[in-house]
Design goal:
The complex is a heterodimer of chains A (179) and B (154).
Chain A lengths: L2 H8 L2 H12 L4 H10 L2 H26 L11 H14 L4 H5 L10 H33 L6 H22 L8
Helix pairs in contact in A: 4-8, 5-7, 5-8, 7-8
Chain B lengths: L9 H16 L4 H20 L10 H7 L1 H13 L9 H26 L5 H24 L10
Classes of the chains: A mainly alpha (179), B mainly alpha (154).
């Protein structure tokens, strides 16, 4: 009677998600697998993340087109968005299997390397988010008049969008464990 | 229609129904595809050539050309993955990511140009409509012609 509870507690969350999925498939996974693949969760997560990422960058392009002087929009604030983009690439370049240590084959970074990369990548991601908020609330809101505040809002929204895109791309995708 | 069994959620069922109907209707219909593409390009040209409009919006053609490339690469990725039935490799996910970035960019470019007062709002409306039509055409192409197997797949 207690086996399901022990199984639930002892397995990691990734396998639990996989078991939940096979539990739902009613045993015959071949028949609805072709359909489930077409709209599968990985594809939808990638598409949504791409949409949000593109919206973020086009917000900053829009703001640059309208306020192009250095006094209104200091060009150095592009760095925040660039670091956020690098963080997105880094976060999604290590898979969960590598971090857990049971990746097949011999990759050039081991488990420790994968964890270091993930750590630094999340540092950069959160850093860019905080930087965007800092620029808005520390510079644009106190020191700018209300009609020149749009570049600050754009910087904040851009980094927020890139961060949300990173999170969706990292945690919205599920890698199967070769069942 | 054995592959309709076991679908989770009504929304997916309705969407899949629509796509299947569309696929059956457009099966092998190259003429309709060409017609849609020409309508899209006509809307694009109209958006540039009417009175008081200028030719800046033709730059969205770059995004039209770039859009099928990641999808084609993604298709090559998944067929060569030797994982059997698993279709959602990280390569395919990356290609979907890049494709959606390109599609949103083609909508963002006229919007940014309109807000920066480079083009008029009417021109932006034409270009957005042209985008919708041309991306529908590309989608239908990839659904009906792009795959080798009998079932439609992205």
């Amino acid at each position: 009677m207690f086996e399901p509870v022990f199984f639930y507690l002892s397995t990691s969350s990734a396998t639990r998600r996989t078991d939940y999925r096979t539990m739902f498939d009613c045993g015959n996974c071949c028949q609805n697998f072709e359909l489930g693949e077409r709209f599968n969760r990985n594809t939808i997560a990638s598409i949504v993340a791409g949409v949000i990422f593109a919206i973020g960058w086009w917000i900053i392009i829009d703001s640059t087109c309208q306020y192009s002087t250095q006094a209104d929009f200091n060009k150095v604030y592009y760095i925040i968005g660039a670091v956020g983009t690098i963080a997105l690439i880094l976060v999604n370049s290590v898979s969960n299997a590598q971090v857990r240590g049971d990746a097949y084959g011999d990759s050039c970074v081991g488990q420790v390397g994968a964890r270091i990369i993930l750590f630094i990548a999340f540092l950069l991601a959160f850093g860019s988010l905080i930087g965007g908020a800092w620029v808005l609330f520390g510079y644009y809101i106190p020191y700018k008049s209300s009609d020149k505040i749009y570049p600050g809002i754009a910087i904040f929204c851009q980094n927020l969008a890139i961060f949300i895109s990173t999170v969706i791309l990292k945690f919205g995708r599920k890698e199967d464990l070769g069942y | 229609m054995g592959f309709f069994q076991g679908i989770k959620g009504k929304g997916v069922f309705i969407l899949v129904n629509l796509y299947t109907v569309l696929f059956l209707f457009l099966k092998g219909n190259v003429v309709l595809l060409a017609f849609l593409a020409s309508i899209g390009l006509t809307l694009l040209i109209l958006g540039c050539a009417l009175a008081q409009y200028n030719w800046w919006p033709t730059f969205v053609i770059i995004f039209y050309v770039l859009c099928p490339i990641p999808l084609a690469i993604g298709r090559r990725c998944t067929s060569d993955s030797g994982y059997g039935m698993r279709d959602s490799s990280p390569c395919a996910d990356l290609m979907w990511f890049i494709t959606s970035v390109i599609v949103i960019s083609s909508f963002g470019l006229p919007a940014v140009m309109c807000r920066a007062a480079v083009i008029h709002a009417g021109s932006m409306g034409f270009i957005m409509a042209a985008n919708v039509v041309i991306f529908t055409t590309i989608t239908i192409y990839f659904m009906t012609f792009g795959s080798d197997d009998s079932l439609p797949s992205f």
